[in-house]
Known about the structure:
By secondary structure, this protein is an alpha/beta fold. The chain has a single domain, classed as Trna Endonuclease, Chain: A, domain 1. Helices cover about 40% and strands about 25% of the residues. It has six helices and five strands; from the N terminus they run αβββααβαβαα. It is globular and about 50 Å long. The relative contact order is 0.17.
Amino acid sequence: MSHLDEQLVQQWLNKNRYFTIQGLKSGNDEIDLLAIRLLDNGKVEYKQVEVQVSFRPIGFVCGLPLATRDEALIKEGVQAWIYKKFESPRKCELRARFAPRDAKWDFVLVHGEMKHRLEQQIFESSHVSLVPYRSVLSELSGESTHVTSSPANGILEILRYMDSKPAK
C-alpha cells in the first residue's frame, strides 16, 4: 500500500504545481518524494516529502513500540527519525543532485493515524510540517478537473464515485 500512498501524494503535489521525483535511492536510504515548484515571483520552493500512512497504527511513526510512555524516549525517537529521514548526510547528498547546495528545503511528513498525541506534538514543535493523509485524499477526490494518466487516478475515480453515488 505504501507505493500507492506515495503515488496519491505525488498526484496531490503535481496538482499543486510541483514537479516531483519519487523513490530516490542511495544504498539502503530512500527519499519518498522531492517536490520542486517555481513560484510566481520567480523563486523556487523545495520540499522533501516522506509518506507514512497507517490506518490502524501498532506503534509510533518514529518506530517506537506503542507501549512506550516515557516522554524523553519519545522525543529522542522522533528526533532520530527526523535525522534519519531528512538530515542525514546521504539525504543531503541526494537532494543536492536536484537543487543548488544552498537551497532551503522544507520537510513534510504526510501521515495516517497517529496513535499517540505526544508524538504528534513533538513533530509539530519540530521543523517538519505534518500533513494528514486524509486531507490529501479529500483535496484530490473533491477535484474532478485534474485528470492524469497516473496509476493513482484510478483510485481517485473510485473515491469520487463513492462520494457521488448513495449506497442502496
